[in-house]
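Filed under: proteins

Residues; backbone shape codes:
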Amino acid sequence: MQWKEYYKERLMTADEAVQLVKSGDKVVLAHDVAEPPALVEALVRNADRYKDVEISHMFSLGSGAYSLPEYKDSFHMNLWFLSGNTRKSVTEGYGDYTPMFFYETPALMREGVIQVDAAMIQVTPPDENGKVSTGTSGDYTVQAVKSARTVIAQVNSQVPFTYGDAVFDVTEIDAFVECSQLLPTLPEAKIGEIERAIGRNCASIIKDGDCLQLGIGAIPDAVCAELTHLKHLGVHSEMLGDGVVKLYEAGAVDNSCKQIDIGKFVFNFVMGSQKLYDFCDHNEDCLLKGVDYVNDPRVICLNDNVVSINGGIGVDFYGQVASDTIGYNQFSGVGGQVDFVRGAAMSKGGRSIIAMPSVTVKKDGTKISKITPLLSEGQVVSTSRHDTDYIATEYGIVRLKGKTARQRAKALISIAHPDFRDELAEAYEKMFKENC
């Protein structure tokens, strides 16, 4: 059968497509920009058809309506990363969070530890050869397509056609729903004085030819703004964002010094502006790969001079970093932080940075130090003290590797907010039985 006939026979409405999902099924949604809104809306619209359908994904940019309490008999959340629109289900106890290293997700699918009865994805229209691209999401989406009993795809002409692991034959998909919708875009991050200072501190240890992993937001963008004078930077990153494209346009990134995928941007999902999506579209220098390649520390370290920059919620005197919990509450997820911290550590000349403002400012203006003697009660360690390398705030950057517990504490106090240094010094004296 020619691919056009196959495609035409499996073309249906969103309401028809979601009937392929049965009660008790385990459904995996593509995440971030790749979440298929037409399919999600149809799933929720038909909620009364289902009982105990488990929904799993990483970060959601969609409505998250399926996670509302009124649908808890139809849909059960088993999330791998929490976002603002899904967090309530876990916080209030009718949903679950499963901790895992991001790079392990596809292997867990292959082994059947994570069951995939149905995968809901978003793809480009087929090209002349009957190929579609998942466009903005490789990560676990690639393996979900391979592992699922049923694959349902929203065909969206707004999805960029990216290469790498993201390309599938139409015959690998069971149902197609044509619905073109603009992809979610993120507003340009607002970079204030604190973010600029953190960016300068991080940039102080980055040099020509380094291979970067950066996330999204004001701090990564501030770092990029400080690197435009450098040359021959490379990108091997969990996420591709606008800051990296700006570096490319400034002539700072050419991927020429990488040891693998030379000349290529390598990433497992993309999120940002429409300009970013256009940059990726049919760009052979952009390789959208599975997370079990991009985030595997054994792959990351094949490039020399990897510099990994991630955020944190708090760090204690021992160098333990909390990035996904606040007290007893699950706030987000570890994502690829530990994957890249360890990959950078294994890379020749590699460095990893946890970058964060020195304080959290509450709505009433109260400041809370992010550097504390110990993590708060119930708070979970994301990056262990044995893995932590550099910590950066707006007051400086310090390296913890090779330092004693006492030396670490002193170094961290030196980059804490000045309003808290005296009380941190007092805590130091109690903990370590010496003057700070």
Summary: The domain at 3-178 is CATH 3.40.1080.10 (Glutaconate Coenzyme A-transferase). The chain has two domains: 3-178, 193-432. Residues 306 and 350 are 5 Å apart (CA to CA).
